């Protein structure tokens, strides 16, 4: 699931991703895939390869595909556990990304997405950031990026949009610059010296070398990040350049060798130090070790109860590139991206084969219920033929997860993921319970409202799953924006909340840190890469839609978060999973609220609010229903192979549990039986999906505090963001008067966040006579 810290690639799972385009301003289900992330990647890999939060563009709200850049190496499930703990703090999200090689996050946020992604060290992938931290290519993220980009812009308009200036910021002439190879040679020498000098010598004693060792390790980390981040980012705009991809793979393989042979031991030895040894060294050097690196040390030591011997961990890491579940999962991801579906062209009437992104985009954006249902039928029928490949991969993942839990001594089914996210089992259980009760009640209430509005505005007679994300098309506002307009909208929204955040946003734009156009040969979706020391950088595929404006607001939030937290150093700047989406989702929210205030009519306001509710439900309720499906499959797997038929039955049970029986809200669940087959997170990052619900509701609670008492809120939020990974979840939220340990925290957040928007929508619907 998560490669060991010693074996990650810098772009590994993406952060969140946005769903395919839609006419509604905030009506695209971001399939969570970062990120970050955000994910089970080890902190080491997250750091060394810039966590990236991403929002893969081609994915649609119907899926939760992890968007990950093409990976070449991951670790076995056993070593994956360590990946969760390691150097630095996690993320996904991303977004994008999966995730973050750097492509995270494609998973559920309908409007502004995030998906964590991290760079996966030792792989050729980069990532999602958006996350998920994820080690498999997103459905079609690379192979069909060009096909999925449907832009109304002319080639001239695309060519005129800003590109990032990587060479200026990283100070390399090109990805083939010999300077990179010389630096990697020097880093390898330094890694060998590091191991020879400090391995087996970290205990308190005559030399007390822990501080000195961490400082050298940090220096190596920074150097690796600079070279590998540059090549990974550069390759994402040259996906069709085989030599460029080979170059990245070559460097990632070198990184994997450095990690497995010379660096991995460090994390294990820190984890295994006696508490007395650590406390003694905290008192030395004027307290510098404790003041500067305590959070890093504590993160490494969380893995202690679950570590295997140094020899076993190294063997698992070295073998992971050649054996284990990775190859099957990668095969699943590649086959998923190759799926093609027959779709009739609206203009010519001819039937042609299209990738899943194109099909989902048509279903999501169509205002005709017949077209939506035809697309749903085509999708499900295509996935039926894919079920055995998916079932094979999911059996491998669930079996590996079971062995990992057993051998390492994890407490329950989700503990491995929870430990990697630094979240207590009890907090996650409380979240899942709140969503299955309060969240499901609000979900059903919302879809009954939407069903009524669609009947009034589109003549809908039967409400089916294909209509779930249908746009409430009643607005009068613009559906298209220039890049300059998008920048101004985000700047205005940020400025109203925080001049500091607005300034950092403007700096990213003006210093050419954003690659804007939806150009050919470029990775699909969107992400923000931390690129510590030189970043941050954003990759977008801007086509002028309202969704693209939302994506800019989201990814810029990640960028601001990185900038503020860099002061904590490369080992501690990355926030924990529980807080990594704070700035990005908050950025979405403040821009959304600013646009809502300026909406030209009640119809526009209702359309925007309904789209936002779609986003929240897709991020919260839908993700938790995915978690429930995973639990059913994993529990069955403990007793033997799970058949495709059993997986389909588990999927149907979860749909009823979270959306009601047929006839309750949805009149029909026709053509939904095999939608489980294209949710890549199940394969790349088991039990990661609840993270999206976690992040969305935390930000909802924070925004509720801001709405009630804006005075002093900006300063508190900037302090939270600046802390990076040095503050835990509970400590970070205390200044806002929020207590996540409360039994009612999640239910209260749902009621305030989703419930508040739903109340607004109902009032407008009644006013406009859409609801009796």
Q: Count helical runs.
A: 30
Radius of gyration: 24 Å
How can the largest sheet be summarized?
6 strands, mixed
What is the spatial order of strands in the main beta sheet? 3-5-2-9-10-8
The count of strands amounts to 10
Helix fraction, binned, reads: 40-55%
Q: How far is it from the N-terminal to the C-terminal residue, by CA?
A: 49 Å
Spans with pLDDT under 50 lasting ≥5 residues? 1-151
Strand content: under 5%
**What's the rounded overall pLDDT mean?**
80
Q: Care to describe what's here?
A:
With 772 residues, the protein is mainly alpha-helical. The protein is 54% helix and 4% strand. The protein has 30 helices and 10 strands. The strands form 3 sheets. The chain has a 6-stranded mixed sheet. It has a two-stranded antiparallel sheet with strand order 1-4. Helix 18 packs antiparallel against helix 19, helix 18 packs across helix 22 and helix 24 packs antiparallel against helix 25. The chain is globular.
Task: Provide the descriptors you would attach to this structure in a database record.
772 residues; mainly alpha; six-stranded mixed β-sheet; two-stranded antiparallel sheet; 30 helices; 10 strands; disordered N terminus
């Amino acid at each position: 699931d998560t490669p060991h810290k010693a074996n990650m690639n810098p772009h590994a799972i993406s952060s969140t991703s946005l769903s395919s385009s839609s006419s509604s301003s905030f009506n695209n289900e971001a399939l969570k895939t970062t990120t970050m992330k955000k994910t089970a990647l080890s902190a080491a890999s997250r750091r060394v390869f810039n966590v990236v939060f991403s929002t893969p563009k081609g994915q649609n709200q119907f899926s939760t595909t992890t968007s990950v850049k093409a990976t070449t190496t991951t670790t076995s499930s056993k070593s994956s556990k360590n990946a969760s703990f390691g150097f630095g703090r996690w993320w996904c999200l991303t977004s994008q990304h999966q995730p973050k090689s750097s492509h995270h996050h494609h998973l559920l946020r309908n409007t502004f997405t995030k998906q964590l992604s991290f760079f996966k060290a030792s792989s050729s992938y980069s990532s999602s950031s958006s996350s998920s931290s994820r080690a498999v290519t997103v459905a079609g993220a690379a192979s069909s990026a060009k096909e999925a980009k449907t832009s109304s812009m002319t080639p001239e308009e695309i060519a005129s949009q800003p590109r990032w200036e990587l060479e200026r910021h990283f100070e390399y002439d090109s990805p083939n610059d010999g300077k990179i190879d010389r630096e990697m040679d020097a880093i390898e020498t330094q890694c060998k010296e590091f191991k020879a000098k400090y391995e087996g010598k970290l205990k308190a004693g005559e030399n007390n070398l822990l501080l000195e060792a961490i400082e050298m390790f940090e220096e190596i980390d920074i150097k690796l990040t600079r070279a590998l981040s540059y090549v990974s980012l550069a390759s994402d705009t040259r996906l069709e350049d085989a030599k460029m991809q080979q170059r990245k793979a070559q460097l990632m393989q070198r990184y994997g060798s450095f990690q497995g042979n010379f660096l991995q031991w460090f994390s294990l030895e820190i984890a295994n130090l006696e508490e007395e040894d650590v406390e003694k060294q905290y008192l030395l050097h004027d307290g510098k070790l404790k003041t500067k690196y305590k959070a890093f040390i504590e993160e490494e030591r969380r893995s202690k109860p679950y570590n295997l011997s140094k020899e076993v961990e190294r063997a698992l890491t070295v073998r992971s590139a050649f054996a284990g579940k990775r190859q099957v999962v990668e095969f699943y991801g590649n086959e998923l991206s190759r799926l093609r579906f027959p779709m009739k062209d609206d203009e010519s009437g001819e039937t042609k084969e299209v990738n899943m992104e194109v099909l989902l985009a048509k279903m999501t954006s169509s205002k005709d219920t017949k077209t939506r249902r035809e697309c749903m039928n085509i999708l499900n029928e295509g996935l039926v033929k894919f079920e055995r490949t998916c079932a094979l991969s999911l059996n491998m993942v669930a079996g590996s997860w079971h062995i990992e839990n057993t051998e390492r001594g994890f407490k329950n089914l989700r503990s491995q993921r929870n430990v990697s996210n630094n979240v207590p089992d009890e907090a996650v259980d409380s979240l899942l319970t709140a969503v299955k009760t309060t969240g499901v009640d609000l979900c059903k209430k919302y879809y009954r409202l939407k069903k009524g509005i669609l009947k009034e505005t589109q003549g809908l007679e039967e409400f089916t799953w294909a209509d779930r994300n249908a746009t409430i098309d009643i607005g009068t506002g613009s559906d298209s924006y220039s890049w300059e307009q998008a920048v101004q909208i985000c700047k205005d929204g940020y400025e109203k909340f925080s001049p500091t955040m607005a300034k950092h946003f403007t700096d990213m734009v003006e210093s050419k840190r954003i690659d804007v156009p939806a150009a050919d040969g470029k990775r699909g979706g969107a992400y923000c890469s931390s690129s510590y020391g030189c970043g941050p950088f954003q990759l977008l595929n801007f086509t002028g839609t309202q969704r693209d404006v939302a994506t800019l607001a989201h990814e810029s939030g990640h960028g601001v978060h990185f900038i503020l937290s860099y002061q904590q150093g490369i080992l501690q700047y990355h926030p924990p999973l529980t807080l990594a989406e704070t700035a990005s989702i908050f950025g979405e929210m403040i821009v959304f609220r600013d646009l809502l205030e300026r909406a030209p009519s009640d119809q526009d306001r209702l359309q925007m609010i309904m789209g936002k509710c779609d986003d929240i439900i897709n991020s919260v309720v839908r993700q938790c229903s995915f978690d429930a499906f995973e639990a059913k499959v994993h529990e069955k797997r403990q007793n033997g192979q799970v058949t495709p038929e059993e997986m389909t039955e588990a999927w149907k049970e979860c749909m009823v549990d979270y959306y009601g029986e047929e006839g309750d809200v949805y009149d029909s669940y026709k053509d939904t039986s095999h939608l489980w087959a294209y949710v890549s997170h199940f394969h790349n990052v088991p039990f990661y999906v609840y993270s999206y619900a976690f992040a969305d509701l935390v930000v909802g609670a924070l925004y509720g505090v801001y709405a009630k008492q804006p005075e002093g809120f900006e300063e508190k939020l900037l302090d939270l963001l600046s802390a990076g990974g040095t503050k835990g979840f509970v400590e970070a939220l205390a200044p806002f008067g929020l207590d996540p340990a409360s039994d009612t925290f999640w239910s209260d957040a749902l009621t305030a966040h989703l419930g508040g928007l739903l109340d607004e929508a109902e009032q407008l619907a009644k006013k406009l006579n859409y609801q009796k």
